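Bit of a strange request maybe. I'm writing a small parser for structure token strings and I need a real example to test against, not something I typed by hand. Could someone generate the tokens for this chain?
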Amino acid sequence: MIIALPDGLPACETLRKEGLAVIEGYEDMLTMLEPVRIALVNLMPDKQRTETQFARLLGRTPYPVELTLVRPDTHVSKGTSIDYMTRFYKPWSDVRAQHFDGLIITGAPVEQLPFEEVTYWQELGEMFDWASASLGHSMYVCWAGQAFLHHRYGINKQMMFTKLFGIFEQTVLSADDPAMRNIGASFRTPVSRHTEVHEMDLSEHPSLTVVARCEITGACIVRDQASGAVINFNHLEYDADTLAREYLRDREAVRETLVPENYFPGNDPAAQPIKSWASSANAFVSNWVSEARERGKVKRQGRQEAQAGS
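Reply from user aminoacidic:
Good idea to test on real output. This should exercise your parser:
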């Protein structure tokens, strides 16, 4: 469809070259269309690459999307300049009073730290509570999903002996869940993490449903009915070469590095990877935006009725 991004964001030109319709700035979008307003809290170290990945998927949905980039007030990015963050990212304190239809919080390179030692932990908890109370829908990816479950339900993440790293087939357990429309009985997804959440811990909370899982990598998609959150412990947003870049980075830092499973053709790191999860990623994000749009309408209507009655 069409996506509105901050004026001058590098992703604008990248996505235009890929054939997506992009508006720079938000005023034109607001006068032309009624967009689905999404806030993206990007905690990944490579801001430009991650924001482009999510913008690409959001821009391919059937709905006009307005994407606002958000940063915690209490966190200073080490890998991205202050000028870039100031120009394109709004501080959380500036957006929390605004209306959004949905919130996405990415993973972060802090999964081996205790949650409470993360410098922006308190602020992140405020975001979780804000989304649960005020927004139509939310998506928490990888570490952010673990953090949400710990904040809301006291569920702990568990360290694994070896990193889960590669492309793994996930089995859909709830085909009637809105997140799984047009995906089929199974789908492939990139996995890259050192920690997991045990499904036994999830089963102790009636509001949580494991929607998709894998015997090797455990729970993949989890829905929290109480908060309107969809959790994806893995990385459907990744580009074809993302795991390859992670592999090269890890190999430079550590002499013995596992080759990502089921990823390189012929298990040859010199071969060009294929993005076998592309259609599933598009369907998943399109489904999520559709839910955010509908739930956002309900939230707006409720606010308007409350204001009219006051």
